[in-house]
Structures are given as structure tokens and as C-alpha cells.
Specification:
The chain has a four-stranded antiparallel β-sheet, with helices on one face. It is built from four helices and four strands; from the N terminus they run βαβαααββ. It is α+β, with helices and mostly antiparallel strands. Helix 3 packs antiparallel against helix 4. It has a single domain, classed as GTP cyclohydrolase I, C-terminal domain/NADPH-dependent 7-cyano-7-deazaguanine reductase, N-terminal domain (GTP Cyclohydrolase I, domain 2), CATH 3.30.1130.
Length: 129
């Protein structure tokens, strides 16, 4: 059984951008994360130790926001890789965008979806609910 644990539209203030102008001062990016996790025990145990505490996701996201990164692509990739190190997370989907990057555009951004690899180097199948 799988459980989706998510954070939606977290505003992160960070130094990000390709141009020197963009990197002069912090910019706001908006990040959403959805993790597919093992759910064998948490649904019945009612114990936080049996599930993924979304505070861990939030803390990792804000820590990464303190690094100087040029591309949103690197930001979402590093975040996804960090999350996949957690033993309960099987798959992660991360979206990040810059709000109002262009005058007539609400959002400009990127998304990544990654699955944990099994011991043979193959991607684990995602359980179907």
C-alpha cells in the first residue's frame, strides 16, 4: 500500500538564477513536493515513528534554499535525491517555479519525478492504489 505525503506551494527565498542580476538578492521560488511512501504500519499504528514526518521534508527544502544554485533544474534534482535517501520514500515528485518571471506569465518552472532504484539498479515499480 502506498501513501502520498506532500508539501504544497512552499515559498522559499534563495539565491538562484543564471544571470548576475538574478543572484544579487534573494528571489522567491515556490516548491511543491509529493512523496510516495511505504504505508504498512502508519495507517494502523497512529505513531509518527512509523511514517514520514513532513517536517523532515520542510526542513530539507529550506536548508537547500540556503545554498546558492543557478538553475531550478539542479534545485529540484538535489531535493529529489535527498528525499529518496529516506527509507520510507519510494518515489518523489518535485515542482519549483518562479512566480511572475515574465510580465504576462504567472509561473515559470520545472518538475522532476524520480523513483528509488532497487539493488539491481532498476527502478522499483510504483504500487497501484
Amino acid at each position: 500500500m502506498a501513501l502520498h505525503i506532500f508539501l504544497n506551494k512552499v515559498r522559499v527565498h534563495c539565491y538562484i538564477g543564471e544571470s548576475a542580476h538574478e543572484r544579487k538578492r534573494p528571489q522567491t521560488i515556490v516548491v511543491s513536493v509529493s512523496c510516495i511512501c511505504s504505508h504498512e504500519r502508519s495507517g494502523t499504528s497512529d505513531n509518527l515513528n512509523d511514517t514520514l514526518d513532513y517536517r523532515l521534508l520542510y526542513d530539507a527544502l529550506t536548508r537547500l534554499g540556503k545554498k546558492r544554485i543557478r538553475l531550478l533544474e539542479r534545485f529540484v534534482t538535489e531535493l529529489a535525491d535527498q528525499f529518496l535517501e529516506h527509507p520510507l520514500i519510494e518515489e518523489v515528485y518535485v515542482t519549483a517555479f518562479k512566480p511572475h518571471k515574465f510580465p504576462d506569465c504567472e509561473e515559470a518552472g520545472v518538475s522532476i519525478e524520480k523513483k528509488k532504484e532497487n539493488k539491481n539498479g532498476n527502478k522499483n515499480p510504483v504500487p497501484v492504489l
